[in-house]
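Q: Start with the shorter request: fold the first protein.
A: Done. Sequence, then structure:
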Amino acid sequence: MGNAAGGHRNNEAPVRDVTLSGFHMGIHPVTQGEWYDLTGETPSQALGDREDGGSGWRNLPVENVNWFEALAFANAMSARAGLTPAYTMDGTTVTWNREANGYRLPTEAEWECVDKARKTAIMTTKCPASTLGMIS
């Protein structure tokens, strides 16, 4: 994990090895339609054709949500699927239950692993095989 190439930011060094367990990641960002169907809200600024009564907006990525809202959405997805929510939230205090089987945001290491694998199409033992089947 990290960036060994020149020109990196201070927080990208030193490069270090990270071992990941298997995980899954969706093949696309959460869409406005998925967010609306679960929450009944449309927080996004990008309206697409919503103003004209079209449904194309449903396929646009949701945006204009904060980290806490994203965690609450993950917990709601978990509840809908009958899974154990990954987060306990008390105001701005968040606890991640690593034993939970519910939806959650990827860790920095998972995100970096998936991004590098997607860009290079190279699979290593550091990026579990179960991940790549979920990435476009």
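Q: Next, the second protein, separately.
A: Sequence, then structure:
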Amino acid sequence: MQPFRSSPWTRRLLWLAIPVGIALAAAYFMPRPELLAPLNDVTTDLANPPEFFVAPPERPGYDAARFAPLQRRIHGDLSNARLPWPPQETLARAERLARGSGWTLVGVDAAGLRLQAIAVTRLLRFRDDVVIAVRPAESGGSIVAMRSKSRLGRSDLGTNARRIRAFLAALAAGE
């Protein structure tokens, strides 16, 4: 049996197809440029972001000077959720939803109306820290502030903002 021998045209097509394939894959998978910004800590409350209360020692607080201007530009639509339920009920609903989302709860502070969890990304299994703080609204009901921070990398490619939007939408829908 003779070894496979390709023609010169086959080799040329192969050498052309490889870079074209890579370029097409990069164009297809490349996120929007603004999502490449060095932002990996996103919150709904830029003035008073929820603090992690069961934090690893190396977990810093929210760096407002660094992250707030970027977040306003990229995720300016994020804000606290106003919900009709009393704060204790809202916290209980948030806890059920977090567990149902597959998050690992690492702390629930019922007296402080807050919870902390670890969310894991689907594709690469990155672990991100999430904290939710509930407070009474002046007009009744409650206000929910949320923060999601990636443990690795300078940019989260929009993962934290998508997580916050999806969670708050599901919470508001009563899921």
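Q: Describe the second briefly.
A: Residues 8-29 form the longest helix (22 residues). DSSP finds four helices and six strands in the chain.
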